[in-house]
Amino acid sequence: MAFDPVRLSKFLSLVLRHQPEAIGLALDVQGWTAIDDLIARATAAGTAFTRAELEHVVATSDKKRFTISDDGLRIRAAQGHSVSVELGLAPSEPPAVLFHGTATRFVESIMAQGLKPQSRQHVHLSLDEANALNVGRRHGKPVIFRVDAAAMHRAGMAFYVADNGVWLTDHVPSTYLTPCATS
């Protein structure tokens, strides 16, 4: 079968973010796994790829979902885990405003309960409206929320920056959210 970067990226998302056990893979506490072990277990499970193909997906992914360790031996998902990992990210002061994209069908619930991580470990926030809009489109008719990150930070809520630049926090109370018009 010809190399398909999108297919490999989806496979990596599955095993590095959600179901490592699907191929008998073990992630350490920070979500890292040995690249050689990943390739061997994936091949044994019927999804064969080379180190070069893996590196191509990591390097060319527009969302930068994966990180290879500095020594080149391990890989992990940058964020978006539904399995329990501690990414080891230090709290960071966020920009004054961040954005969250979702579908319009969730607006009522979000305004009642705020943004929750759902099946993930954190709420994901974007630096700009364009990225938030792209995220929202994946879920249906999009809506963007403006997040008053500065006020949240002043109130003592922690923020983290994932390896790929996505901002993470545990919860965004609705008092810090403003729906934005989308075109």
Q: Can you describe what's shown?
A:
The protein is α+β, with helices and mostly antiparallel strands. The protein has 2 domains: 5-77, Arc Repressor Mutant, subunit A (Orthogonal Bundle), CATH 1.10.10.970; 97-180, Alpha-Beta Barrel (ADP-ribosylation fold). The protein contains 6 helices and 9 strands. It has helices spanning 5-18, 35-44, 51-60, 107-113, 129-137, 149-154; strands at 33-34, 66-68, 74-77, 97-103, 123-125, 142-148, 160-161, 167-169, 177-180. The protein has a 3-stranded antiparallel beta sheet with strand order 1-3-2. Strands 4-6-9 form a 3-stranded antiparallel beta sheet. Helix 1 (5-18) packs across helix 3. The radius of gyration is 17 Å and the shape is elongated.
What topology does this entry show?
Elements: H1 5-18, E1 33-34, H2 35-44, H3 51-60, E2 66-68, E3 74-77, E4 97-103, H4 107-113, E5 123-125, H5 129-137, E6 142-148, H6 149-154, E7 160-161, E8 167-169, E9 177-180
Antiparallel strand pairs: 1-3, 2-3, 4-6, 5-8, 6-9, 7-8
